[in-house]
Amino acid sequence: MKKHAYIVMVFLCTTFICSASKIENAYKALSIYDYFKAKKTAYSCINKNTSQAAFVLANIYYRTDNPFHNYDSAYKYIELANSNFNPIKDLVLLKKYSFQDSSMLALRNAVHSASYNKYIVSKKELSISDIETFINYYQNSLYLQKCFFKRDSIAFYNYVKEKKSSGMEQFLLSYPESSLINDAKEQLDYFTFREYAANDNISSIEKFIISFPKSNNLIAAQDLLFAISLKQKNTALLYKYIKQFPNNSHVESSWKDLFSLEVNTYSNEALNDFITKYPDFPYKQSIEKEIEISNVLLLLVKTNNTFGYINETGDTIVPFIYEGLEEFSDGLAVAERNGKFGYINKLGEPIISFDLEDAESFKNGRSIIKRGNLYYVINRTGTVISNAYEGISDFNEGLAIVKNNLLYGAIDKNGKEEIALQYQSMGEFSDGLSTAQKNNTFGYVDSKGLPTIPFMFQWAEKFSNGRARVKYNNKYGVIDKKGDFIIRPLYDRIDEEINGVYIIYKNNFYGFADSSGCLLSELNNIQLSNNTSKDYTDGNLLRLSLEDEQKLINKNGKAVSEEEYEEMYLPKNGLIKIFTEDKYGFINTKNKSIIKPIYDDASDFEDSVSIAEKKDLKLLINTKSEVLFSIKTNELEKIGNNCFTYLNEKNERVISNKKGITILVTTKDTPELFKDRFLIWEGTNKTEIYDMKAGKFIF
Prior knowledge:
The chain is of the alpha+beta class. Among the domains are: 19-142; 300-385, Beta Barrel (Thrombin, subunit H), CATH 2.40.10; 562-632, Beta Barrel (Thrombin, subunit H); 636-699, Thrombin, subunit H. The protein has a four-stranded antiparallel sheet with strand order 4-5-6-7, with no helix packed on it. It has a four-stranded antiparallel sheet with strand order 11-12-13-14, with no helix packed on it. Helix 10 packs antiparallel against helix 11 (181-197) and helix 14 packs antiparallel against helix 15 (251-262). The protein is elongated.
């Protein structure tokens, strides 16, 4: 049996060797680098010895040391050799010419690698067309998956650059089996969202939310709706989205923003209106608590150099733990602790944390704080709503002036920059305009920063009642909002307008002009020393100071009195103080003597009383010339409505009412009066408070 098997094997090998004589010649020629003969011989037996001949040809075309080098042909024949390879038949010949059984696999790997490097890797600008050409020819390439990924990546990023949902849709249709399919779906979702959200169109964004309820950008769409409604200060929209998207992370802050937008003045009426309008406000109890404590009268006091608040009975409400404390405004007070500032409510509870370098009191729901040497605007919830600036002014007409790098601009109450930082200086807005400085000259800009009155002045003030004082060619005048001069720039000085009347100065004399620029008097009045503009006019009467007399005239030039007085003052409480023959008295505006000039000194009437002096007596008189009380003292001072103080013969301080009835006798200095009830002494280390209603010291 074994003998027969041996005979069969010998027969087969003999047959194989005889039929392989031509291909052997091809191998021999290949082994001695006779490529012409090897190629010709291999082609002649390609049909009979396909795998062997194709292997020889693949070697020839792969090698670079012959004129037949061609990777496309090398690929064609190594694939032909590989697909027709017979291990029993072909291995014998391979080994005979020193090729190992792995030679075909190695050559195939080399051909695939070389063709991939030539047509794909080495390309400086690889296109989808280049890759598709390679894929179509090299269909069995070992690098086919890499080619697919490169092709898909190029197509994907080309469509990404377009930033259009249509591009991503085309990618998904063109490459449904791509490994980037999930990335493409995410981009399609994102681009779709962007297209719906373009131009912050609210109805379009709402349509996106309805149309794509499973979108990854659903929350982003909701967030954008919140942001747009806040930017537009649209409280109705903001409330709508709070209700529509209760699980959105912005709901809590949006409630606070809604509160900040709705409540501009922190009054009980405004707070009640808010919780009536929004009964589902999640912090309703805190507002009701604020309303309740807002009616509590608190007194700021100091003890041992620390500050706190007590109520009207002297109970401590805010503990004495603060190095500094201010009065409450908008329900909050600035407090200082451990060198840092924060805000507390009337219960002493910290509302805005103590991490600020400085802080101002709230006004209309806004405050200015300092962090890291820069200033920010916050709303009453403590949220920073502005960029950082080197300086921020108070808000006026809805705008605050801001400064950075020596340039000024303006922001609105939501922190939005309405005027870019571009001017050397700016003043607060008034009558819709602000003074601005450019190239060292002053002009006026509107709320958008656009110049409305040219930059031509050396100085300019804010507008009031449609008029403003300016300095031009070193002289002062008054302009209207068109920039036209109402009062020509001819004067050395013009005082601030008082009820439509200007005091104008030239050559050390003064006179008057009205708001239309008409002169109301000659400029021949001698300036009064230690007087302010309010001592010259009240807008109805004008005080003239001539060489030997003073007189009051109306704007038509008619004198109040034909009599001459050495001094004549503007009316207070309907009475005019006069000084004549070294005595003071009072007349009314009809030139009728009300109180004869019998006093050595007298104050203007205030709250229908005047402090007068006669010989060594201090007297309190009313407008009927009745003496309410008199006292022999060197000092009688009004410290509040119906409250006066003087020193008695023992040098004690007496606090009395206007009838002279004693309220308190003390050795302390003059107190301040608070709420017409509390007498307050601010000592170096401690505050003392006397309650006139209770008749005792409460602190």
